[in-house]
């Protein structure tokens, strides 16, 4: 029968010991008995041996806890600044599991790979005494963990103040039109150079990656007027670009026209020289004939010249004798009318011939005409 079953009280280990009932043993009594056994094993059971063993065991436990508490881990993007009694050892803890002496060494992890942002914005006075609101943002990375941790009390606040100071200095030495229009890139570079000069004196331990010019605008009260001015400047630039494009398009055409005119002038020059040389040669040929028969030669030259003149002019015959009425005969009109009639007759005959060729009896008609022509020729030969 088990001690905890009904009727098993006599088997209960906490009862009927020494003729009396008792509860569970006290924890202090258990510890005393345990250390007493250790003391006897060490030789004698005296109080001195008991105290020595307890102190030794306690020291071992504390030593193990101290050793285990020295293990720490540094992440991949971090470096640890190792301090010994609060002084820099010049050693950077690398990523991974490492060990330090607790209460002696201290490791401060610093992220040296992530890119951090720091912005600044505010209303500022420009060189030409105009108010403008500028907003810029800086991207940086920690290059020296120890300087970042101990050079200044609050590195982020110091960096923000340095950025604000650099922006205000550059804006204060720049005109408003340059800040609002095409001078932003120059202002951005100047702010970066000025900021690098400031933080180099503080030894904050950061490296500037980039500087972004996010926004620059005039006060809200005059924003509409400045928008119109900026639009006008953009239109000016656009018109200049269009004019330059038109000039680039027109210049080759003008050069081609100039070259063509030069070539035509050169050809005209050569033609005139050749014509003059031809005229000289012709007069040299006429000179012996003129010497031999001057009157005949003069008359022939006159007739040839008049022929050339009248061939390209209108001709009118005028009767100035007889009655007082002036009679004229427009020969050019008559010749034109006659030529037009002749051309009409030719066209009509051509059309008739084509119609006859297309008709069914065209071949017989042609044969008949040929026979008539042969007969006429034979008769003429006989006569």
Automatic annotation (TrEMBL):
Subcellular location(s) of the protein: Membrane
Keywords: Hydrolase, Membrane, Protease, Transmembrane, Transmembrane helix
Every Band domain range: 69-230
Domain of life: Bacteria
Basic and acidic residues: compositionally biased ranges: 7-20
Similarity field: Belongs to the band 7/mec-2 family. HflK subfamily.
PANTHER family in the record: MODULATOR OF FTSH PROTEASE HFLK (PTHR43327:SF2), STOMATIN-LIKE PROTEIN 2, MITOCHONDRIAL (PTHR43327)
Protein name: Protein HflK
């Amino acid at each position: 029968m088990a001690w905890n079953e009904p009727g098993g009280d006599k088997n209960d280990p906490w009862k009927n010991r020494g003729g009396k009932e008792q509860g569970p043993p006290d924890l202090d009594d258990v510890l005393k008995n345990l250390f007493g056994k250790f003391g006897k094993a060490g030789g004698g059971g005296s109080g001195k041996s008991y105290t020595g063993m307890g102190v030794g065991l306690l020291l071992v436990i504390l030593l193990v806890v101290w050793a285990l508490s020295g293990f720490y881990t540094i992440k991949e993007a971090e470096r640890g600044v190792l301090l010994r009694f609060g002084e820099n050892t010049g050693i950077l803890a690398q990523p991974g599991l490492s060990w330090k002496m607790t209460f002696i060494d201290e490791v401060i992890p610093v992220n040296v790979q992530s890119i951090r942002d720091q912005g600044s914005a505010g209303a500022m006075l420009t060189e030409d005494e105009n108010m403008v609101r500028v907003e810029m943002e800086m991207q940086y990375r920690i290059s020296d963990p120890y300087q970042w941790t101990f050079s200044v009390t609050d590195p982020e606040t110091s960096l923000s103040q340095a950025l604000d100071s650099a922006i205000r200095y550059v804006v204060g030495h720049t005109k408003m039109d340059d800040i609002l229009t095409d001078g932003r890139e120059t202002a951005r570079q100047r702010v970066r150079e000025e900021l690098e000069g400031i933080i180099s004196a503080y030894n904050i331990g950061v490296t500037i990656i980039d500087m972004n010019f996010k926004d620059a605008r005039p006060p809200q009260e005059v924003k509409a007027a400045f928008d119109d001015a900026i639009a006008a400047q953009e239109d000016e630039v656009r018109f200049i670009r269009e004019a330059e494009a038109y000039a680039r398009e027109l210049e080759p055409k003008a050069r081609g026209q100039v070259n063509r005119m030069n070539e035509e002038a050169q050809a005209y020059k050569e033609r005139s020289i050749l014509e003059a040389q031809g005229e000289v040669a012709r007069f040299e040929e006429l000179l012996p004939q003129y010497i031999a028969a001057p009157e005949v030669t003069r008359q022939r030259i006159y007739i040839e010249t008049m022929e050339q003149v009248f061939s390209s002019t209108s001709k009118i015959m005028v009767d100035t004798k007889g009655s007082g009425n002036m009679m004229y005969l427009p020969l050019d009109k008559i010749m034109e009318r006659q030529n037009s009639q002749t051309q009409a007759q030719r066209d009509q005959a051509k059309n008739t011939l084509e119609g006859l060729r297309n008709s069914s009896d065209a071949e017989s008609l042609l044969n008949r005409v040929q026979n008539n022509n042969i007969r006429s020729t034979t008769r003429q030969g006989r006569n």
